[in-house]
Amino acid sequence: MTTYQILQNVNWNSLPIDDYRQSFFIKIYCEKLNLTNPFFIQARLGTIFSCIEEIKLYINSLDYSKNSAYIQNGIEELIELIDDDKVFLKLIKDNWTFFKEKLQVIIKEGIGKQKINLINILNILISYKLNYEENLYEEMSFSIFGECDLKEKDRVLTAIEENTSRYISYLLDSGFSHLYLFNRKEYFTRSSNYGGRSFKVQFDSIFYKLSKSRQEFKVYFLISNISGFEQFKEYFVDNNINILENIENKVSKSYYDKLKKQI
Q: Quick one: CA torsion of 159, 163, 165, 166, rounded to 10 degrees?
């Protein structure tokens, strides 16, 4: 089903919309999340942070030297993504010039002795992630609700499309499914879902819940009797996977006893 078909039954006059920016946001939101659209219309899945994680995955492989071409291509893509992202550039400020030059040297000379430098740069760049989400949301919100010259329609609509696409991509990269986010459109397109709230209040409420609904969990796996396990220990440590010799103090005694019986 096309985005047009999805939105053709929306009663736009019944929605608490102040100007064309909010209706355009709804259309862009649906379009970028509609999987029946061609991939080049959908919000792209790649983000600065997914690119960094992919590079780190290749670096931390058991034989990263074989992946040097993938690493260099990943660095080139990362540079392009950051150069094109106004929100991230505002966060990193003048530091990007320094990091960009270092990354370009690594591309030119190869990974080799630069592995530690590259990892340090990637860790610094990914440390901006939490602030990036907040700043990206504010930028998207301002492009939809902030004061501007509404006569400059092309500039206004371009900003909304770019910011919305980046924010959706960020949410997808954070683990939200296309379908889950796509179904949120009902809160924007049905007047009965507003409950008397303004579009701005509804907008903030929906995305606040999305940003605050993520939780972190610690997961434990019981591993035993694996031949050659020792040679993989370094790989696990490099990927922030801790190996515990004893988990008795991590789980209840009754559950620990059950686990022991299964070994």
A: 140
